[in-house]
């Protein structure tokens, strides 16, 4: 009995002890919870710092990868340019002339190569290179190796272009072949001249595209809303029509290229398709009061930006409108005007030239103002005249002259 009573007393004492010590342990539990929260905050901070480090390292790696891609792209372009030089027949002749290991000759060879790359416009050289590659592919595909000379292959290539109704391409192809390979030998020159003459006679007639009529131009520039997009497209139409500018010339205009002089707008054309030596040209545009208001408002909008161009790309600080964007906004403007005619970007230039001739301006002055290189190219832009008024006294004078000549013959 004593043992059992002692065990009960021990259990009660343990329960009482546990019960007594519980309130003393509770503040320790609260302290441990606070320390645990602080540790969680510290771990979160460490994680954030680690994540920022990862982001910074990833951005640095992406920048490094982008720069490496640019470097690889530039190296690839240089390699392609070097390969083109090696394949170019004109450069091979230069290598044969200046063949040697001396540093002076090597420098001279490089200088000659640089001059050969600048004797034509870059776009012209690209077209010639494309034609040359087409000729090489045709030669490998169509002619037996070793049986025909180079002159014979050239003549056959040009004749096949004419057969395939590509007479215009045959004329430019002859220029490209002469540029890279030199003229044909004297015995074959007469035959080449006959082929080129056949190409000129086989060319399709010039297609006269739609020209902007003065009434349509007035509706194009008659804008109701003076927002920056409407002002830009209206100002573009003004300079294309009044200045007889090409679309590329208008888009390349910078802010310092336009200034007012005695109430007229003076523009400086830096580069042109027919300006080989970059001499530039200046033109004075006579604008109406409405056109002047549109141009001044658009100039104010463009002056508020750091973009140097007059017809700016709103999403860029350094570039002008692209050709595709300019064509799109012009077409959208014609749709708003309710015009369904297929007006291209050159329709302003041709329409202005036709309107000037109809008002009595001489063709020579219009040709000079529009900077056309040849009269043949100018005729393609002017609307052909199908009706003229002949004075009534002309037939009588003709009859009188014919009678006098008949009496003299007797």
TrEMBL record:
Region (Disordered): 40-88
Molecular function terms, GO-annotated: DNA binding
Species for this entry: Caenorhabditis angaria
SUPFAM superfamilies referenced in this protein's UniProt entry, alphabetically: DNA breaking-rejoining enzymes
UniProt superkingdom: Eukaryota
UniProt KW keywords: DNA recombination
Pfam family for this entry, one: Phage_integrase
Low complexity bias: start-end ranges: 57-68
Listed GO biological process terms: DNA integration; DNA recombination
Biased composition (Basic residues): 69-82
Entry protein name: Tyr recombinase domain-containing protein
Domain named Tyr recombinase: residues: 207-403
């Amino acid at each position: 009995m004593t043992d059992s009573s002692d065990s009960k007393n021990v259990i009660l004492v343990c329960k009482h002890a546990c019960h007594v010590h519980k309130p003393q342990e509770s503040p320790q539990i609260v302290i441990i919870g606070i320390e645990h929260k602080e540790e969680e905050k510290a771990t979160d901070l460490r994680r954030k710092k680690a994540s920022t480090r990862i982001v910074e390292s990833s951005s640095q790696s992406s920048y490094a990868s982008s720069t490496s891609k640019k470097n690889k792209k530039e190296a690839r372009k240089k390699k392609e340019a070097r390969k083109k030089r090696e394949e170019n027949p004109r450069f091979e002749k230069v290598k044969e002339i200046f063949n040697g290991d001396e540093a002076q000759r090597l420098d001279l060879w490089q200088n000659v190569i640089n001059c050969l790359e600048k004797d034509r416009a870059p776009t012209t050289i690209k077209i010639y290179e494309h034609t040359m590659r087409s000729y090489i592919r045709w030669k490998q595909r169509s002619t037996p190796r070793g049986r025909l000379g180079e002159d014979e292959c050239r003549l056959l290539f040009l004749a096949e272009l004419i057969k395939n109704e590509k007479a215009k391409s045959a004329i430019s192809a002859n220029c490209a072949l002469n540029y890279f390979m030199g003229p044909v030998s004297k015995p074959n020159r007469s035959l080449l001249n006959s082929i080129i003459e056949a190409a000129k006679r086989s060319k399709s007639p010039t297609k006269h595209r739609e020209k902007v009529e003065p009434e349509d131009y007035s509706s194009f520039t008659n804008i109701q809303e003076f927002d920056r997009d409407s002002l830009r497209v209206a100002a573009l139409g003004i300079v294309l029509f009044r200045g007889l500018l090409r679309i590329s010339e208008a888009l390349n205009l910078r802010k310092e290229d336009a200034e007012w002089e005695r109430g007229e707008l003076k523009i400086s054309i830096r580069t042109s398709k027919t300006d080989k030596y970059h001499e530039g040209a200046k033109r004075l545009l006579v604008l109406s009061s409405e056109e002047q208001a549109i141009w001044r408002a658009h100039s104010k909008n463009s002056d508020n930006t750091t973009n140097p161009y007059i017809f700016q790309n709103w999403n860029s600080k350094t570039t002008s409108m692209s050709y595709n964007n300019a064509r799109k906004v012009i077409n959208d403007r014609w749709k708003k005007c309710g015009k369904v005619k297929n007006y291209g970007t050159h329709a302003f230039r041709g329409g202005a030239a036709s309107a000037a001739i109809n008002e009595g301006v001489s063709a020579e002055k219009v040709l000079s103002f529009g900077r056309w290189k040849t009269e043949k190219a100018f005729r393609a832009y002017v609307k052909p005249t199908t009706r003229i008024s002949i004075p009534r006294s002309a037939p009588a004078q003709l009859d009188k002259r014919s009678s006098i000549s008949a009496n003299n013959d007797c």
